[in-house]
Amino acid sequence: MASKVALITGGASGMGLEVARSLSSEGWRLSILDMNQESGEKVAKSLDAKFYKVNVTNYDELADAFEATWQEHGRLDFVFANAGIAGDESFYSHPELDSKGRPKKPNLLVTAINIDGVISTCWLAQHYFRMNKKPLGGVIVITASCGGIYPVPISPIYGASKHAMVGFMRSIAPRMIKDSIRVNCICPGTVRTGLLSKEGWETYPNEAFTPIEKVVEVVNLFVEDETLYGKAAEIIKNKHYWQDAPPYSDEWMALTMKACD
Ligand SMILES: NC(=O)c1ccc[n+]([C@@H]2O[C@H](COP(=O)([O-])OP(=O)(O)OC[C@H]3O[C@@H](n4cnc5c(N)ncnc54)[C@H](O)[C@@H]3O)[C@@H](O)[C@H]2O)c1
């Protein structure tokens, strides 16, 4: 059988890179998408993969990379919607004022990358998965965060972006399964990657870090286990826990939400 094909955003470092390495060792063909050209090219060379310099907030660049992947392989099996940033601006700092004395617009790069970029990635994945002949469909794993389950007062825009992705995954999964597309998300605790600086990581408890291998294990589980869709996996240290949507408070809410199915 021909090799399976994966497309990974943010594949030049951290979790994206480790998932790429794992899939490559299993014989997958890979498209690595990242803004970081230098690392991306190095990674692609080492994994006999294709690198595409893509900023996920640029829809044309993203769509070109999907199309090029399809043209090269004629199928697509797995999309890891993983590119993301933490952002380093404090939401609470006193804002600079513009010439009219109003607070300047907040920096919303985090939502552009972590929300808009992931939505565009899933939008494109759906299109190409529907064109697969045999096997039909495909798998999407979205990288959310523990900050998509629990409040993040220190970084509320990041928290909002990751809550959005848990909600987005839960919303699209029951629909996309009808096209044999399984969508799940991962919600890791702290993992030592390039997301933060060395000093940034020092503000988190050393004993609670999650090994990157555990993240790769859960992503592989989502890729392989055909029964899994609509699941949010909280990952902490060497464990993972399913975080299901809260139950409806009463029959009226159940009825209301049924209308949104
Ligand atoms: N490291 C953690 O503790 C942790 C915990 C929970 C969730 N996450 C999430 O994991 C994902 C991966 O991050 P990581 O921890 O591996 O960090 P990382 O910085 O090592 O990797 C992120 C990669 O995404 C790329 N990237 C960033 N913005 C991009 C853009 N606009 N377009 C294309 N590529 C872009 C970066 O160049 C980098 O290669 C992110 O979504 C992050 O929010 C990380």
TrEMBL record:
InterPro entries in alphabetical order: NAD(P)-bd_dom_sf, Sc_DH/Rdtase_CS, SDR_fam
Q: Which Gene3D superfamilies does the UniProt record give?
A: NAD(P)-binding Rossmann-like Domain (3.40.50.720)
Tell me one GO molecular function of this protein. oxidoreductase activity, acting on the CH-OH group of donors, NAD or NADP as acceptor
**UniProt xrefs under PROSITE patterns:** ADH_SHORT
Question: Keywords assigned by UniProt?
Answer: NADP, Oxidoreductase
- A GO cellular-component term linked to this record: cytoplasm
- What family does the entry list? Belongs to the short-chain dehydrogenases/reductases (SDR) family.
The name of this protein is 3-beta-hydroxysteroid dehydrogenase
Q: What lineage does the source organism belong to? A: Eukaryota, Fungi, Dikarya, Ascomycota, Pezizomycotina
